[in-house]
Amino acid sequence: MPPKKKFSAEQIVDAAFNIAKTEGMDSITIRKVAEQLGSSIAPIYVNFTDVEELKRAVMKKVSQMGNQMLHEQQTGSPFADIGAASLQFAMEYPVLIRDLVMKPSDYLEDYDQDMGAQLVAHMKLDPELEGFDDEELKLILLKMRAFQTGLTLMVVNGQLPALDLNAMREMLNSAAEDVVLAARLRKQAEDE
């Protein structure tokens, strides 16, 4: 009898991610991942107790990828980097974005907590956002996220064929300027 193939947790997560990026998170099953690896299901259960634990590991990978894209942007504005990274992710992984944004998902709770803290920390590096506390930055981020989500869905659904990535970045920057200016004016009015 030939020896059973052994796979690392990372290899298993990569196989599950390949399924998620083409078919969506709900399509990840232990059996499909095993097929992707050319294996039985046994090596998967050596590394993960069930499919839910595997899906959470896939979401952690998605979070790490998003963070990597964020750090690669270097637009000169940390806040603009967030939008640019989000657009890049949407363009590269439309099925996954559509799946994560359009469906209720328990997996996003961990993602939101991880990324939310990282994004607020990233926003604090932006001189344009100086003077805002964490709660104010979270509100600005939420408002921009609402705009960003709409734009992202339009991208993945092919509803902005006339706009290239630079035009979409300009639109994001303009919306961000409007949100930050309104927040600053509101803050000044409250301080008076």
Automatic annotation (TrEMBL):
Location of the DNA-binding region in this protein: 29-48
Domain HTH tetR-type: residue ranges: 6-66
Keyword Secreted part of the UniProt annotation: no
Transmembrane intervals: none
Record InterPro entries: Homeodomain-like_sf, HTH_TetR
Native organism: Paenibacillus septentrionalis
Protein name: TetR/AcrR family transcriptional regulator
Keywords, alphabetical: DNA-binding
Domain of life of the native organism: Bacteria
